[in-house]
Design brief:
Elements (H helix, E strand, L loop, with lengths): L13 E4 L7 H7 L5 E5 L1 H5 L3 H10 L4 E4 L8 H14 L3 E6 L1 H13 L11 E2 L9 E5 L11 E5 L6 E5 L7 E4 L9 H20 L5 H23 L4 H21 L3 H13 L3 H16 L4 H10 L9 H18 L16 H8 L3 H6 L6 H13 L5
Parallel strand pairs: 1-9, 2-3, 2-4, 4-6, 5-8, 6-9
Antiparallel strand pairs: 7-8
């Protein structure tokens, strides 16, 4: 740690973790003075019947609730505005978000909009939210975003087609209930790209220019948990030990990114979601090894550490050789869980690359956090390499 380094850590979210923890939902609502719940839930969970597990504690405690399941994988701002209108009409004084990052981001935004004037678009940026929202409780059902402990809510702006986030301490959830049993039914392909998404959060936070001892502690533990357990969770979704480890890894990755930020992978993933609807976790997963290869010279010491944590033998290797093995390990992990290898596999047009690169560089905070500062030509080159792919040695 540099003697001159300064940092601030704000982590107000109460965390409840463990199999069966969802049974505490009603009491948690009461603890935060909630009496009428606006339940924002991924529509896939409704179709799968998992909503009954979520609503059972509320029904038992006779807490009224309104279900809002009009959630898209890449949500637009209108979903938050519409949710606010419905929640206000129903007299809701507490918001519960259940699902992946999309549902939780919409839930966090609705909780803020209920106490702050105007539409969601008004709060895109950093530090624009002035008032605390109503109590918000997050229940992740995938191990990916860590949104249950972050101060960000990401949306597509329908007016511009661009993707951006609300950012500010009022967005921190009041409580997070992490029950690994709720993740058992997650399909293998979603397990894969949400898991690599969580790994990306932890890895980019670890190599961020804003990293510090607390964020590094979260990052390294998250990376180790995810690298060891993602293949098992992918191979056998009913492996509760692997699912628990993945949920903890995602949580710690969320804490890491909340305190140190993310980097160029995220900046480059945003236009893939905004322009082509590629799920955020999948975009991150495909880009990750290519961006890491570009970033190596920005902090070889840290990438060598990551190579070892990812299972590579770095004995008797030079620093550069050790760092390069991090790229190999990431490609191997992607292969294990059948992540597509290239942008071409995602049907992204090659001629869209210059426009995506320009948009990526407007996502300023992740770009500034990146260990290597990219030019427009650099970002275009990374996209082009990721489009065609290459075989590591």
């Amino acid at each position: 740690m540099a003697a001159s380094q300064t940092f601030t850590v704000t982590q107000p979210t109460q965390i409840q973790f463990g199999a069966g923890a969802i049974s505490n939902l009603a009491q948690t609502v009461k603890d935060f003075k909630g009496s009428n719940v606006f339940l924002v839930i991924d529509p896939g969970l409704v179709k799968a019947g998992l909503i009954k597990t979520i609503t059972a504690p509320l029904k038992k405690a006779k807490i009224p609730f309104t279900v809002y399941d009009k959630i898209d994988p890449e949500p637009g701002l209108k979903l938050a505005d519409r949710g606010k209108t419905l929640a206000k009409k129903a007299g809701c004084d507490c918001v519960v978000g259940v699902g992946g990052g999309s549902a939780m981001d919409v839930a966090k935004a609705i909780a803020i909009l209920l106490t702050n004037n105007g539409k969601a678009e008004k709060y895109l940026g950093l530090g624009l939210i002035k008032k605390p929202g109503v109590p918000k409780i997050m229940v992740p059902t995938s191990s990916g975003t860590g949104a249950e402990v972050t101060f960000t809510a990401v949306f597509i702006n329908e007016k511009t087609g661009s993707k951006g986030g609300m950012n500010g301490d009022p967005l921190y959830p009041d409580a997070a209930i992490l029950d690994p049993e709720l993740t058992l039914s997650l399909p293998p392909h979603v397990t894969a790209f949400t898991g690599i998404d969580a790994l990306t959060h932890a890895l980019e936070a670890y190599t961020s220019t804003q990293a510090h001892p607390i964020s590094e502690m979260y990052s390294l533990e998250a990376i180790e948990l995810i690298a060891k357990n993602l293949p098992q969770a992918y191979a056998n979704g009913n492996n509760i030990e692997a699912r628990s480890a993945m949920l903890m890894g995602s949580l710690l990755g969320g804490k890491a990114l909340a305190t140190a930020g993310v980097g160029l992978v995220h900046a480059m993933a945003y236009p893939m979601g905004g322009m082509f609807g590629i799920p955020h976790g999948l975009a991150n997963a495909v880009l990750l090894p290519y961006v890491v290869e570009y970033n190596l010279i920005g902090n070889m010491e840290k990438f060598a550490v990551l190579a070892q944590i990812l299972g590579q033998n770095i004995d008797d290797l030079t620093l550069r050789e050790s760092a390069t093995l991090c790229v190999d390990a990431l490609f191997d992990l992607n292969d294990d869980v059948e992540i597509p290898g290239t942008l071409d596999d995602l049907d992204i047009p090659f001629d869209s690359i210059p426009e995506m690169a320009k948009i990526a560089l407007t996502v300023t905070r992740p770009v500034e956090n990146n260990p290597r500062q990219p030019s427009l030509e650099d970002v275009i080159s990374i996209y082009e390499t990721a489009f065609h792919g290459y075989i590591t040695t």
